[in-house]
């Protein structure tokens, strides 16, 4: 089988660097180019701190996608740029594999429509770590039986979006099995705004940002005389790479947009 030709957007970022290394060491995937906002017209090997690879680097995403005969775009930048790159990829019949979080529901709906109109696949995964995918699925199951639930997500202090994509996806999965309901005392009042966190149908989401953290989430369920905590920790960016690899392979056989890695697991 021929290689899957990959463009990576954001190769100098924390996730981008890990993705470049993963693709470099993989037999099925081939890095053909990168999209970087600082460097243009160089080879990856000319950029300090990146592997010695010949892939060409572009600042202009449109130029990159027009010139390169690529199969997949691995998008790991920022919410704003990520959306633009994902649209551009679909316009060029390049399948997006998106780790970037912070897209709005309207943007997701628009991208899904583009995929369906064109009959090509895309994967948008709020979390590529298998443990996080299981944490979300277990939480959905638990919420059927213990519907009083709060989510605490903790991330490094360079993160742009809050709450995290993982926390939002967890809340959406729980919404599928839980009726909207008031949690806490009916007369509860915040004496300091924000004390009770963000609200999704009565379920609260709390976002912690501190140096030293990578990506962590606890989903806490309360019942009579008991609590259940489902917790996941990513300690490094390699934890996400088997998911990026799986998505880059599976997206080749999709004709629509898949939101969440769970849809690609057996
Ligand atoms: N789905 C998942 O499993 C995971 C998703 N994420 C998400 O991935 C994204 C990236 O995270 P992370 O690597 O930690 O962030 P970083 O800030 O470390 O990296 C982002 C990179 O994108 C670059 N960039 C910004 N704009 C552009 C552009 N227009 N063109 C090309 N490159 C651009 C930045 O460039 P510069 O260095 O010049 O600023 C930076 O190098 C975030 O949205 C994060 O939430 C993170 C971890 C896991
Ligand atoms: O920005 C991050 O770091 C992460 N972002 C994703 C999210 O918003 O859920 C995935 C993971 O939590 C790391």
UniProtKB/TrEMBL annotation:
Keywords: Amino-acid biosynthesis, Cytoplasm, Diaminopimelate biosynthesis, Lysine biosynthesis, NAD, NADP, Oxidoreductase. Residues 131-265 form the Dihydrodipicolinate reductase C-terminal domain. It holds the Pfam family DapB_C. It is found in: Cytoplasm. It catalyses: (S)-2,3,4,5-tetrahydrodipicolinate + NAD(+) + H2O = (2S,4S)-4-hydroxy-2,3,4,5-tetrahydrodipicolinate + NADH + H(+); (S)-2,3,4,5-tetrahydrodipicolinate + NADP(+) + H2O = (2S,4S)-4-hydroxy-2,3,4,5-tetrahydrodipicolinate + NADPH + H(+). (S)-2,3,4,5-tetrahydrodipicolinate binds at residues 156, 165-166. One of its GO terms (cellular component) is cytosol. Its EC number is 1.17.1.8. Pathway: Amino-acid biosynthesis; L-lysine biosynthesis via DAP pathway; (S)-tetrahydrodipicolinate from L-aspartate: step 4/4. Signal peptide: none annotated. Its main location: cytoplasm. It is an enzyme of class 1 (oxidoreductase). NAD(+) binds at residues 10-15, 99-101, 125-128. The keyword Cytoplasm applies. The active site is at residues 155, 159. GO terms for molecular function: 4-hydroxy-tetrahydrodipicolinate reductase; NAD binding; NADP binding; oxidoreductase activity, acting on CH or CH2 groups, NAD or NADP as acceptor. Belongs to the DapB family. NCBIfam families: dapB. Catalyzes the conversion of 4-hydroxy-tetrahydrodipicolinate (HTPA) to tetrahydrodipicolinate. Homotetramer. This is 4-hydroxy-tetrahydrodipicolinate reductase. It comes from Halobacillus salinus.
């Amino acid at each position: 089988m021929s290689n899957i030709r990959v463009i990576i957007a954001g190769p100098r970022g924390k996730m981008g660097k890990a993705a470049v290394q993963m693709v470099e060491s993989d037999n099925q995937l081939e890095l053909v180019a990168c999209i970087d906002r600082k460097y243009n017209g160089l080879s990856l090997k000319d950029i300090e701190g990146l592997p010695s690879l010949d892939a060409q680097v572009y600042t202009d995403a449109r130029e990159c996608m027009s010139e390169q005969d690529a199969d997949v775009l691995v998008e790991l930048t920022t919410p704003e740029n990520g959306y633009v790159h994902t649209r551009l990829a679909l316009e060029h019949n390049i399948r997006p594999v998106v780790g970037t979080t912070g897209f709005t529901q309207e943007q997701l709906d628009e991208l899904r429509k583009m995929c369906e109109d064109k009959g090509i696949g895309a994967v948008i995964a709020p979390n590529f770590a298998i443990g996080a995918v299981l944490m979300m699925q277990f939480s959905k199951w638990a919420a059927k039986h213990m519907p009083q639930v709060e989510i605490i997500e903790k991330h490094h202090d360079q993160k742009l979006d809050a709450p995290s994509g993982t926390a939002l996806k967890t809340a959406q999965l729980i919404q599928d099995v839980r009726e909207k309901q008031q949690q806490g005392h009916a007369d509860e009042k915040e004496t300091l705004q924000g004390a009770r966190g963000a609200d999704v149908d009565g379920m609260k989401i709390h976002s912690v940002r501190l140096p030293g953290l990578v990506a962590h989430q606890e989903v806490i369920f309360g019942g009579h005389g008991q609590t259940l905590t489902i917790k996941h920790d990513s300690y490094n960016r390699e934890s996400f790479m088997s998911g990026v690899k799986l998505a880059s392979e599976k997206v080749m056989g999709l004709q629509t947009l898949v939101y969440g890695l769970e849809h690609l697991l057996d």
